[in-house]
Write a structure and sequence with these properties.
Layout lengths: L3 E19 L5 E20 L4 E5 L20 H13 L5 E6 L10 H17 L8 H8 L3 H6 L3 E5 L3 E4 L6 E7 L6 H7 L17 H9 L6 H7 L2 H10 L4 E6 L6 E5 L2 H14 L4 E7 L1
Parallel strand pairs: 3-4
Antiparallel strand pairs: 1-2, 2-4, 2-5, 5-6, 7-9, 7-10, 8-9
Length: 293
């Protein structure tokens, strides 16, 4: 009997990000607090006689034809996840895979990594793969640096090149507005422009009891990639300014390598009002209210 599976691939938010060094192989070493939103892409999959891949949703048109190529060499990380897991299981990749793309591409929200992680979770159900399969950690890491944390899909402190994960301190859910000027901000371009390194994140308690307490901590941190991201997409500055001007905004910050920025608000009503106002003022931008935790 055929199974139809629908999975949520949430946006990944870097609440704070420090670049602590660079390895001899060129990879930058990070220390970041990562959390996940209640908004993201959707993966639909079912058993099939052959592999197929299709894309729909608000940002499906951003895919180049070769990115939707249903082959092992595809540039699309969700497709590569299917082929990688099929190879590990020594079985044909006979799956119909459909991606509903709700997140902008190259936006600093880990959308592709979240898609790949959701594909792996779905195939675990479809193909009867246990969560403790010995090959999974290496497979996830080889798909991309952000895939392991997206597979866990819970707040984490991420260090190294994404390979060192530990539970983040507990904190209350955050009412957030995401804003993207719809200008691609490729991660590689940002890291090429980054200069200088800093110390790791400071000591953190086991839990932050209130939003104010957590926001105060976040406000003392930052995102080391902001100066480089501004060189790639100068409009990021306007996004941060627009967010900070909204009523109830505690802080505004770049997520990951950009170009998506987020603002943390006092409550959900204020974040929703701010999102409506920003969408009206800046119709060319992507704006989304969500909850992050």
């Amino acid at each position: 009997m055929s199974h139809n599976i629908r999975l949520f691939a949430p946006a990944k938010i870097n609440l704070t990000l420090v670049v602590t060094g660079k390895r001899p192989d060129g990879y930058h070493v990070l220390d970041s607090l990562v959390a996940f939103a209640d908004f993201g892409d959707v993966i639909e999959m079912s058993e099939a006689s052959n592999f197929s891949f299709s894309v729909s949703g608000p940002f499906s048109s951003m895919f180049a034809p070769e990115e939707a190529d249903a082959s092992t060499s595809s540039e699309n990380i969700a497709v590569r996840a299917v082929y990688a897991l099929a190879a590990a299981k020594r079985r044909p990749p006979n799956v119909s895979l459909h991606l509903i793309k709700n997140l902008p591409l190259a936006s600093g929200l880990g959308g592709g990594s979240a898609d790949a992680a959701a594909v792996v979770r779905g195939l675990q159900k479809l193909w009867g793969i246990t969560a403790d399969a010995a090959y999974l950690p290496e497979l996830l890491k080889n798909l991309g640096a952000d895939v392991p944390v997206c597979w866990l899909c819970s707040p984490q402190r991420v260090r190294g090149i994404g390979d060192i994960l530990e539970d983040a301190p507990r904190f209350p859910a955050l009412s957030v507005v995401l804003v993207n000027p719809l200008k691609p901000c490729p991660t590689a371009d940002v890291f090429r422009r980054h200069q200088g390194f800093h110390k790791a994140l400071p000591f953190m308690p086991a839990a932050f009891e209130t939003v104010n307490e957590f926001v105060e901590f976040l406000g003392a941190q930052g995102n080391d990639l902001l100066p480089a991201a501004l060189q790639v997409v100068p409009e990021i500055g306007a996004c941060l300014e627009a967010l900070s001007e909204q009523t109830g905004c505690f802080l505004s910050r770049l997520s990951g390598s950009g170009a998506t920025c987020f603002g943390v608000f006092e409550d959900r009503l204020q974040s929703q009002d701010a999102a409506k106002r920003l969408a009206r003022l800046f119709p060319a931008w992507w704006v989304q209210a969500c909850v992050v935790g």
